[in-house]
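USER: For my understanding, would you kindly supply a protein sequence with its structure tokens?

ASSISTANT:
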Amino acid sequence: MMRRLFVFAAYDPHGVVGPSLLHQLGELSRFGDIVLRMDNDCPAEELGKTRGTVIHAGAGRHGEYDFGSYKRAFLWAGEHLDLGGYDFCYFVNDSVYGPFGDLGKALESMEAGGAGAFSLVYNPHRTTPHMQSWFMGFRPEVFMSDWFHDFIAGVTAQPTKEMVCIVYETGLTSLLTSHGIACSHLVSAGGKRIYNDVERLFFAGLPFFKKSAFTRHNGSLGRQVRRILDSVSPEARDAVIRDASRLLGDEYVIRFLSCSRLCAFTRYLGYLVSKLKRLTVR
């Protein structure tokens, strides 16, 4: 049986371990050990909700985004666990809702490829192709290497989220390539497809969708999200709706999910108009 370690980065604006995070941790715990780090202050009673699903949970605002949490969780694992005893080490974050369906099948598909590094989603960007960093895995030849350790241990705060993506997300794929590590993936999604085509990617086999689907493009993705939620287990659907309602309000979520085709078009048109106005002001 394969031994997997999930280095998990989470963030909640209210310092809460919400229903969606508990669902994600519970599903992942069926397939391996989890070390959790949150980039927010979190009361002990909230972290206590994860007991039984993770082997360690820590929290505290550091401002280094997900890679800062990856760093802290990975270094904790290196100090307290036998990393060499794991067949795979995954870096995962909670920027998505899910998993839905058979996560084990997705893990096995990625691991069967034989690549030293792999991800659920790969962005085939023309100049900077890269693994999307919200769910990526590594074999021991990577996560046990000095150069990988140095890269993760060297994560520092960046002035913008965009710089985090350039320096660490894109930078990690470049680092892997420079060391001769092949990278594979389950799904290829260029541009903003991971954010805009959530329904199509879900039915193509991606067992997650981005949380930002609830607010993207003026809330015009409601029909896509509703069709996804109509296709998942009641437990998974409930976790998503309760978490989205906690963060965005019950009324917003009800209106979002009841969006018709005309409503979706109107909301998207409103988004385009507001974007055009901002560009005009500039």
Observations:
- DSSP finds 13 helices and ten strands in the chain.
